[in-house]
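Thread title: Can someone regenerate the structure for this chain?

I was given the following input by a collaborator and told the matching structure tokens would be attached. They weren't. Posting the sequence so someone can regenerate them.
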Amino acid sequence: MPRRMCVMFAIVLSLFIIFQLRLLCNYKRLFFLGDENIPVILWWTPFGNNNRIKTCGNVKCYFSHNRTFESSINLKSILFYGSDLRIHDLPSWRSGAISWGLLHEESPRNNPILVHEEALNLFNYSSTFSRFSNVPLTLLDLSGLEELIAESYYVPTKEKSMLMHVENLAPVLYIQSDCDTVSDRDRYILELIKHIRIDSYGACLNNAKLNDKLRNNYLDILNDHEFLSFVARYKFTIAFENAICDDYITEKLWRPLIVGSVPIYYGSPSFKDWLPNNKSAISISDFDGPIQLANFLHNLLKNDSAYEEYLSHKLSERKSRITNNKLLHALERRGTETPNKFGNYMEEFECFVCERIQKNNQELEEISIVTKRQYNCSLPRDPITRKINNRNWWMQQWNIEKCGAKLLIHYVTNNISININHFDEQKMNMYDNNEC
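Best answer:
Regenerated them for you:
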């Protein structure tokens, strides 16, 4: 028995020594560079910079994917990419001295637990689509001002009318292959299509065929010249988001605006704050239902000048094509020197966290908490009745994950390790007993 215990002790000691050596190897890189006191920021879900000392203004931080840094005295913050965050794979302990940051540009269908405030409260800093986020991603899918006002793809109204007669194009374009959405957008389209012609490409409600060139890989060429030219031929383009969240605005809105097709929009309740002009898109929320919207579209089809009021960002004097100062100021702040790419927002978020943790250390500021203000998504609603949509299976997911969020904060704040099977069982028991 003593011998067996000695062997076990030797094994445990060996593992501990190996762990410490791995940690030391990582530290050596810092020591070698003379930065032994540099703060460490760990990407728990590997996403941003790895094994890199990064200069942010007057400060430096070391970014890594290596989880051995979880035990480092230099660790000051842990970052998570929202779509890859998993309940069963979180840090083994939560310290108030170590901040957590959330980078998440996607809608809640990627990770429904994040719509609930209890889950969001675990994070101190955020980079989301919300304008209230520390590093907002609201205009991530808008390339820039020039694309909005340029006429590269613009097809004149009379030519669009001719295409409707000569090539039998419908006045409205719909192209979508994601048919299972929180917003239940296809329900609205099914009703709208009864009252106005819609060319529906893609897998959802398909009634039209793309040409061979576009059909084979259209999902890979959504920003290519040929596809944009195809969209530009239509007078209207349906731009329905897959979920309804404040400031969650994707390429679905910007693509038709860029090519000069009038978007018919359903999504962010705040989207009008970012339009080029007062009349740049048609919101289904301004109509009592699909019939009223269809009647409005038919009237625009009969009146070219009324239709073109929605295209003033293409047709007005160049200097006055954009009248929305909020949009102009946001694009000006972004500047033209740095390309509008997701990676650059990630770099900015890293630097924000790097500068903030060192400022907090110096000034002992209270650490902030992420709330629904930075990720505000409504319960699944019927797009026609605007009422809570209990028949949408996403509603069940919403409610189940409300239990999950409540349970998660209990586990994390009390540093209880998570067994995912037990966690899921508890979550479902809470849901079944209406305890959330």
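DSSP finds 15 helices and eleven strands in the chain.
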